Amino acid sequence: MKALVFHRPKKVSVDNVPDP
């Protein structure tokens, strides 16, 4: 799920909420 962080740095906060 690290590819989403590079492609969507703005969604990282919404998509990576339950991840981190």
Gist?
By secondary structure, this protein is mainly alpha-helical. The protein has helices spanning 2-7, 12-15.
Written description of the protein model:
With 20 residues, this protein is an all-alpha fold. The protein has two helices and no strands. It has helices spanning 2-7, 12-15. It is flat and about 20 Å long. The termini are close together.
Helix percent reads 40-55%
Distance between the termini: 11 Å
Determine the structural class based on helices, strands and strand pairing: mainly alpha
Radius of gyration: 7 Å
Query: What is the approximate shape?
Result: flat
Q: Low-confidence parts lasting 5 or more residues at pLDDT below 50? A: none
- Beta percentage is under 5%
Which series of helices and strands comes N to C? HH
Summed up, the helix count is 2
Number of beta-strand segments? 0
- Let me know the average pLDDT: 57
SSE blueprint:
Elements: H1 2-7, H2 12-15
Brief descriptors of the model:
20 residues, flat
